[in-house]
Amino acid sequence: xRVVSFVPVALTAIPLASAxxxxxxxxxxxxxxxxxxxxxxxxxxxxxxDPANPGNTLVQLQAFVSTPxxxxxxxxxxxxxxxxxxxxxxxxxxLDRVASRLALFTTIGLGGKDVPVxxxxxxxxxxxxGTASNGMAIQNISLGACGxxxxxxxxxxxxxxxxxxxxxxxxxxGVISDIDDTVKVTHTLDKLxxxxxxxxDTPVPVTGMPDVYASLAQSxxxxxxxxxxxxxxxxxxxxxxxxxxTFAPANGPIMLNNLTTTNISQILDxxxxxxxxxxxxxxxxRIHGMYPGKTFLAVGDSTQKDPETYGNAIRKYGDFIQCxxxxxxxxxxxxxxxxxxxxxxxxxxxxxxxxxxxxxxxANIDVAGGKCS
Length: 373
Ligand SMILES: *[C@@H]1O[C@H](CO)[C@@H](O)[C@H](O)[C@H]1NC(C)=O
Ligand SMILES: *[C@@H]1O[C@H](CO)[C@@H](O)[C@H](O)[C@H]1NC(C)=O
Ligand SMILES: *[C@@H]1O[C@H](CO)[C@@H](O)[C@H](O)[C@H]1NC(C)=O
Ligand SMILES: *[C@@H]1O[C@H](CO)[C@@H](O)[C@H](O)[C@H]1NC(C)=O
Ligand SMILES: *[C@@H]1O[C@H](CO)[C@@H](O)[C@H](O)[C@H]1NC(C)=O
Ligand SMILES: *[C@@H]1O[C@H](CO)[C@@H](O)[C@H](O)[C@H]1NC(C)=O
Ligand SMILES: *[C@@H]1O[C@H](CO)[C@@H](O)[C@H](O)[C@H]1NC(C)=O
Description:
This protein is an alpha/beta fold. Helix content is about 30%, strand content about 20%. Strands 1, 2, 3, 4, 5, 6, 7 and 8 form an eight-stranded mixed sheet that branches. A six-stranded parallel sheet has the order 11-10-9-12-13-14, with helices on both faces. One 2-acetamido-2-deoxy-beta-D-glucopyranose binds next to loops. One 2-acetamido-2-deoxy-beta-D-glucopyranose binds next to strand 7.
């Protein structure tokens, strides 16, 4: 690895680790890019036809380079009073679980790092150039004529983290899906239950959705599934493992938000809608940039800003979003006025609001034939 570690930043983490009173083992390191000081996470990546070079594939690769994960003890010590007193969640018996869910919040992003990777079946070793100061890099990287099939990629280092390459053709279907309370029970509107679902509980799918997505995987002929959540990228390992196991036929890349805070109140603030519309709209722009010729079904729920985001995307991109499905979550704003505003100017045949009783019947909708309900 040609980039040398930025030692001063790494060292800021160490006094915390050595000052720990309690016995959490340091979290297992994801990968080592340079001796003991850097870790690399490469996210599962969408790949698409290179518009400038027919027959070539571009991968939109995202990596996070950071100091290694350290003990979560300081974070938990700071979080516990808030969780106990404000939310009413006692994590005393679940400290290991919580520590592992929050592990990435104990890292510090490192700027200016290059990340060379290898993609299975491809001879070349492309490199992500220069992470931003938050440790993140997102770049389109050419795989040349290779990269047309789903493949495993890895970071070029001794203990590398793997990622999956998800290529998709320029046409055909795709599915844009929210995660929290669309496919995974998060209880977004309830502070105690959402903190518990995020920090402690084994994740549970919204009943019936795994079957609906498995059915879409077939009826839409292996569409590109892309999960778009406004949640912090630090939850990626948790969410990835959930999607990969519970939604296996609908596995796909997950787009998450940048968050630098370690303030647990902000990490768990699902009710904070600031920026959610703009973030999700930007992710749809990003997907449109890669797959302008595809037709997407967009699936979300009524807790946050999915109706507004998808309604706006339909107005902006027309048939690129063929259809929006919105799960009506109890306690959310499910008024006619809200949906009339969100889907103003959108043909009512292009969106469907559904309650939990109707979930199994979603699989019967002829989306491939152009229908939405
Ligand atoms: C939290 O749970 C632990 C273990 O059950 C218990 O000992 C402790 O008293 C609880 N704390 C509070 C504030 O309820
Ligand atoms: C990466 O994938 C290879 C090949 O499947 C596997 O042998 C290796 O254990 C994986 N590494 C990690 C860190 O998951
Ligand atoms: C996250 O940070 C990277 C690096 O600054 C940036 O390129 C990317 O657009 C950011 N993503 C979001 C969702 O803001
Ligand atoms: C964490 O964020 C909350 C909400 O924004 C704020 O009220 C609180 O003061 C912050 N705590 C710390 C330690 O900064
Ligand atoms: C990647 O390529 C897509 C499609 O050409 C484009 O929309 C997008 O802006 C590019 N992203 C970056 C980071 O260059
Ligand atoms: C629901 O949304 C509509 C449209 O944005 C708004 O006018 C109304 O005040 C909201 N109702 C509640 C209870 O928040
Ligand atoms: C769900 O929607 C169906 C069909 O519109 C309706 O018959 C049923 O009463 C609804 N169920 C609930 C619990 O709202």
